[in-house]
Amino acid sequence: MSRETSEWLNTQTLIGMTDQRGKAWHYRAEHQGDEPNHYPGYVPVADVRRRLFGWRAEAVPPHYPVPFGTTPDTPADPANPGYRLVEVPGSPFPMMADLFRQLVFRSDTGRPLGVFSSKYPVMQYGEMLLDGLAALVTPDGLAVSDDSLGIGSAGLLKGGAVAWVQIERPETVATPEGVDFRTSILATASMDGSLPLSYSAVNQVVVCDNTHAWALDEAERSGRVWKLRRRSTLSQFAFKDARAALRMIVQAEDGFAADIAKLCDLPVSPKQFRRLLDDFAPLPDEDAGKSARTRAETKRGQIEKLWTSDERVKPWTGTGFGWLQTINTWQHHMRPAQGDRAGRNTINAVTGKTADADTLTLERMFQVLTPA
Questions:
Q1: Strand, coil or helix: what is 370?
Q2: Which end of the chain is less crowded, N or C, counting CB atoms within 10 A of the terminal residue's CB?
């Protein structure tokens, strides 16, 4: 569950290309800091370094108080040379230093980010997310063209424990099925061990600003059996230059457009919709409590309204893509959330939870539409 506040999202994320795409849905003028976090064009690399990655991840051995009765001059345990008794200025008790582990923290705020083995290599976000990708970005001051690449967004989550940088080109892809989307390279990393350094191709559907990171398997469908793969993971070593990165984005665009066409060609009849609805939001048994039944009925009502009359779904109602768009939109905008919904959606997209949810939706849809 994301704990990002509106203030955090308006100061610790940077959003570009607003002249073409408007403000992010979490934008709040009253929560902007000393300088706005929205940019009319691409986000400058220098601003990402200064505003987001202007601190270092430092590491120290964890310390903890020893039991009462232990004195500061007690020698270290010979059987465990990785532990050492030390005096900490200002502490009334002796402290034990665990030299087997290291606590990683932010140099600017002191906030702890994670605890790892002493052999764990501590890297910096600038090295992981910018040093390689910066070479792909169109230099500041050059005209933006269809072949230019730039930072569309970047940010920190979980107090700095998770970070991302998104590289994209300016134009939107329009499919014959009426789906407008943008494809980008999403680079993510973490300081708490929750995410490996990874690069993925993700897609943003314009009509609802929802993130999609699923893909149909290139093996194509066999009869009516569909195969799926998780979000497309890209190798950082493949980004030899901007041309190679641009080629990857174009390939990802072509693949997503082809997948949309396949799903739009998959019919979903009213009877099949009822079966999908029962699978996704089943009504509880008669002996279930009133609150459980009310929650289920509310969920079903929201899904039905999206399917039949919501502009973010209605153009594709009656198709497999329409069902995916219905569930994706419900999860982004209607699913009960504690705290800030925009923060939850952001971290779900960055960590891959959105991709996993979309993949599960498609898997369940194919099972319901293709009974054994």
A1: coil
A2: C
Q: What pLDDT score does 19 carry?
A: 86
Three-class secondary structure of residue 245 per DSSP:
helix
Confidence (pTM): 0.73
> CA geometry: angle at 33 spanning 165 and 135, to 5°?
25
Task: Collapse the DSSP code of 30 into the 3-class scheme (helix H, G, I; strand E, B; otherwise coil) and give the result.
Answer: helix
Which residues, 6 or more positions from 285, have their beta carbon under 8 angstroms from its beta carbon?
none
Task: Please state at what angle helix 290-309 crosses helix 270-280, rounded to 10 degrees.
Answer: 140
Span 177-206, pLDDT tens digits: 888 888 888 888 889 988 888 777 777 776
**Lowest mean per-residue pLDDT among 12-16, 208-212, 252-256:** 208-212
Q: Which token pair is 289? A: 């409590």
Asked if 338 contacts 1 with a C-beta cutoff of 8 angstroms, the reply is: yes
Torsion of CA 209, 364, 368, 371, to 10 degrees: 140
If you count them, how many residues does the chain have?
A: 372
Give the N- to C-terminal CA distance of the chain in Å, as an integer: 36
Please give the C-alpha separations between residue 349 and each of 2, 72, 120, 181, 203, in angstroms, as whole numbers.
11, 49, 27, 16, 10
pLDDT tens digits for range 291-310: 888 999 999 999 999 999 99
Q: What is the DSSP letter of 134?
A: G
